[in-house]
Structures are given as C-alpha cells and as structure tokens.
Amino acid sequence: GDMAGFWYSLPGGCPQHSQASKTEECRRDTPGAYCGCNKRLGEDSCSYHYEHAGEVRIADITGIEGEYAEFCRRGGLEYDKATDRGRNHSFWDGFWDNAKARARVEAFTEAFRKKYPATPVTLGPHHCEA
After folding, report:
1. Are 64 and 76 within 8 A, CB to CB?
2. 20: left (phi over 0), alpha (psi -120 to 50) or beta
3. Is residue 7 classed exposed, middle or buried when 0-12, 13-18 and 19+ CB atoms within 10 A define those classes?
4. How far apart are CA 40 and CA 62, in angstroms?
5. Interior CA angle at 117 toward 107 and 36, to 5°?
6. Residue 84: which region, alpha, beta or left (left: phi > 0; alpha: psi -120 to 50)?
7. Which of 65, 64, 67 is nearest to 78 (CA)?
8. DSSP symbol at 122
9. CA distance 12 to 10
10. Neighbour count for residue 35 (Cβ, 10 Å)
11. pLDDT 10s digits, 23-80
C-alpha cells in the first residue's frame, strides 16, 4: 500500500569495526551518535537519544498462541505472498491493503496503550529527563 513507513539506521560506537572486534578504546574514541541526557542534540557527535518505552509481543496481537513451531506443524502459515493470505491465520491477510494495514497498526497501538496506560503512544520532539 501507500502507507508511509520509516527505517532508521542509527550509528553506534566504533562503526569501523565488526561487533566482535570493537575495543573499549575504539568505543571511547568514536562513540557514535547516541548520547544520554548529559549532552544536547547537535553537541559533539550527539545525534539521537532514546529511552526504552516498553514492548508489546507480536504473538499477543496476532493471536498465535503457544509454540510457533507447533502452529506450523498444525498447518498454520502466517502469510503467503502468492495468495496474500495466511493459512489457519488471518492477521496478515491483505498485506498491501491500506485499511487492513492501519487496523494492524491500531491493534499494536491499542495493546501498548493498555499495557502502559501512563506512557504516551506517540512522541514528538522533547527534552531528556535526566
């Protein structure tokens, strides 16, 4: 569909090395763009802040209960591109249908709202709370 989505690639510390070969010295010398509340965005290499807001398990939304492997053994399939449908499962049916995609997004938003009622479900620009 034509729903806008966003893909973020946020630079971490010591980007010139693989995860396994990053040293403390490299992380200190090239810290990446993440910074805590002790710096302002745009200061030094500070490009982004983030805070863990919570999580919603996809299984809680899609209705697949129990072990995923068992769901598959029973003939279940979340989604088949060729048919645009699942088998014994309908959450992803009409994958490219904008109305159905919005309904899926709303299902996650509502699950988050129920699980974390004191947390906003959308955020705008804001300052860190140190």
Report:
1. yes
2. alpha
3. exposed
4. 39
5. 100
6. left
7. 64
8. S
9. 6
10. 19
11. 999 988 888 888 877 888 888 778 888 778 899 999 889 989 889 999 999 999 999 9
Q: How is residue 51 annotated by DSSP?
A: -
User: Which residues have a Cβ under 8 Å from the Cβ of 27 and sit 6 or more positions away?
Assistant: 13, 14
Is the model's pLDDT at 82 over the cut of 90? yes
Tokens of 45: 């290499």
Which tokens is 14 given? Answer: 């010591």
Backbone angles phi, psi at 78, to 5 degrees: -60, -45
Q: Whose CA is closest to 34, among 23, 45, 25?
A: 45
Q: 34 near 84, Cβ under 8 Å?
A: no
Q: What is the DSSP string of 69-119?
A: HHHHHTT-EEEETTTTEEES--TTSSTT-HHHHHHHHHHHHHHHHHH-TTS
